[in-house]
Amino acid sequence: MTQKQNAVNFELIRKDGRARRGRLTTPRGVIETPVFMPVGTAATVKALKPDDVKELGAQIILANTYHLYLRPGHEVVKKAGGLHTFMHWDRPILTDSGGFQVFSLANLGKITEEGVTFASHIDGSRHLISPEKSMEIQNALGSDIMMAFDECVPYPAERKYTEASVLRTTRWAERCKAVHKDTERQSLFGIIQGGMFADLRRQSAEQITALDLPGYGIGGLSVGEPKEIMYEVLDSCTEYLPQNRPRYLMGVGSPDALLEGVARGVDMFDCVLPTREARHGRAMTRDGSVNLRNAACTEDFGPLDPTCDCYTCRNFSRSYLRHLVMSKEILGATLISIHNLAFLTGLMAEARGAIDENTYASFKSETMRRYYQKTQSFLPEEESFSGF
Ligand SMILES: [Zn+2]
Questions:
Q1: CB-based contacts of 318: which residues, under 8 Å, 6+ apart?
Q2: Catalytic residues
Q3: Rounded to the nearest whole angstrom, what is the distance from the C-alpha of residue 321 to the centroid of ligand 1?
């Protein structure tokens, strides 16, 4: 039997230390990596038109299987011609498996070998998502990259429970692979779990990569653990992942985590942080986080970030943005979301340039120094939690 072509193909162009410069070719275009993927939870990057998302430099976006399954329903999206047509986005889309939301957002019922039962956070209706169901939903959505259905363990978690969940996640990934037939249209990525246990992460990485999938996600991080632990666990994963496949660190989006992730060989990131922060009136700038509610912005007629050339920074002042935030005008969320996403996509473009020039280590330390010298604590802990 001839091996069917994968929908995506990853080329590792060069390395600078462990940081990787790569290129992911998909049916809907080429993605230069490392890349940050804006999150379009309910088939919309909140407050933005697809044209805005393109203009700010997004190469690929993420959409949530759990949310679209519950509302409007994957069959509706399928009838509309798939997610790309439905939401008018012609660049690549990655869909998550629904696993993370089932474990974090829904009222969790029972986890069995078959799958997970839960009650909808919208209307309390009861559902079962199994690996096969997750594949059916993602297939109907028609995303370019699908994620295998996994069990995301909370932090902290007992070792015994984590051991069992690693094995279950592997069996679920095997079932996802078994029912995934349309490999030329959609690519299936596996997900490494294992909680905060280095040996279980290694075990999960070895089992999941044995499935020879076109890419691998690292799940179950940024779930409330201290950042140092996240970086240690990340180290214990990437070491066991193949060089010729993209690595995707799921649900991580603060500037330091992106830069540390790239330094550890991660290629792809996603997070709701930049758009959620924007809706709270907070902007990411080269010199740290700016809270537009701060009175110092009242008569600041300069741009949010003088080094940024996004639509917002080209046309609006901090004073005006603060006025929008204080007046609760919708445009405030739109303009700050444009800037925050442009900031992170721009940060990744600079990271790619630095890897190309073999200067990633100094780029990272200088960027971190400048960003965090004024930002003592980027966010309260509960808000650094991400993924939906
Ligand atoms: Zn800007």
A1: 290, 292, 297, 300, 301, 302, 303, 304
A2: 96, 270
A3: 12
Question: What pLDDT does 384 receive?
Answer: 36
What's the gap in Å between 55 CA and the centre of ligand 1?
Answer: 12
Mention every residue, 6+ apart, whose C-beta is less than 8 A from residue 3: none
Identify the pLDDT of residue 104: 81
pLDDT at 3: 54
Is residue 74 within 8 A of residue 95, CB to CB? The reply is no
pLDDT given at position 5: 77
List the chain residues with pLDDT less than 50: 1-2, 376-388
Domain ranges of the chain: 2-269, 278-371
- Single-letter residue type at 175: R
What is the per-residue pLDDT for 107?
80
Q: Indicate the helix (H) or strand (E) that contains 217.
A: strand 216-218
Cβ-contact 386, 272 below 8 angstroms: yes
Q: Which residues pair with 290 in a beta bridge?
A: 283
What token pair was written down for 151? Answer: 């069990």
* d(CA 300, ligand 1 centre) in Å: 15
What phi and psi, each to the nearest 5 degrees, are found at residue 189? -100, 140
Neighbours of ion ligand 1 (CB under 5 A): 308, 310, 312-313, 339
pLDDT in tens, 118-164: 999 899 999 999 999 999 999 999 999 999 999 989 999 999 999 99
Pick the CATH number of 2-269 from 2.60.15.10, 3.20.20.105, 3.30.460.10, 3.30.450.40: 3.20.20.105
CA of 64 to the centre of ligand 1 (A): 26
Q: What is the pLDDT of residue 346?
A: 98
